[in-house]
Amino acid sequence: MIGPQQLNELGKELILRKLDYVLDALCPNDLMLSISAEFTKLANQVVEKCEKKGTSVYKWTMVFADRPASLSHVPLVKDSKGNDGYGSLGVWKRIGRGDEKFLFHCPTSLGQDEQGIQWAIDSAINIGAHGIFLDRIRFPSPANGLEFLGACACPLCRKAYKNSANKDWVDLSSLLINCAKLGSDGVAVYMEQAKPMLAFRSQAIESLVAKYAHAAHENRLRVGLDLFAPSIAFLVGQDYHILSKYADFIKPMLYCKTYAPAGLPLEIGLFAKGLEQAGVEKRMVYSFVSEFFSIETNILDDIMEKKGIPSSFARREIHKCMQEIDRDMQAMPYVYAGIELVNHPSYDTMIDNATRDSYLESLIDYDIAVCWNILYVPERHIEAISARWKHVNG
Question: How many whole angstroms separate alpha carbon 16 and alpha carbon 164?
């Protein structure tokens, strides 16, 4: 990820030297590149360096949130009361303070987003990229506040759901709160009552991803997808089975230690916190959340105490991913295990060597996606992955 912050902190020459180091050490198959349009010349240099090493470059593309300013005219999602922005129940305290605002746009309005699709294709072609990497292909997560887990409730989305399911729009946030009061027994009730709405949300995500993928493939560009870990993906409208048919590769975010959006401990912890703030008894919250995400109570204790989740948990999630993707396709998408090795002052993620080694051991059968900004990943992690790669490949 290269933007004004990186250029100010590191400078162009150091960025390119770091890139050379990573390319030599890891010989990566693919590199996902987020870079602003004003830095096209630098982007061309990055692509050229990668091509010399046989590394394909995918232009990182934000779809439902954090879109380029020129594409931000689409209205934001609405909660059940017609509010946009962020909720109050369990919302991440740092949401909206960084460069990434996590403000999501109405999926029904985006259904006609020809301008955004063309921008993605053109920006990839302009820098000589080999594909596009689709991020923010989801609805708001618990980090946005419990109220927005049911978004979008705008008139357009209510009408689209009525036409699709022949049912009135369902307030998933209120349904969650009511079901959580039943403890573990409430999970089955929620899944049954929310089923049509969850399917509708997944279809909204699929519809736009399909359009991006079709446009990319027509222009001989490949497609990568950034997805939540399988255990929480359904909450934000991501269906691995459905989406896998459009991807050349998938990167599940198996972040077991990160207290930032998409991190398993942050999202699950805020989910639980939001339910408790909504008035659900703590004992019932724990029972409901443990059943909802199929995690032991002691793991939930660790999450709430900011200890994260054992990195070995990533193996469970990658297995779920492989089970859920569409196995009937002639060419299944490649799967990279995304692990958070970044050390950046803007985040509280600090992966020590033991945690890194646990990740690598748990994911020994899979290639790694080094997340989420290679410019801020310590060299000791790069060297460890390089040694593992050389050992596995003889």
Answer: 50
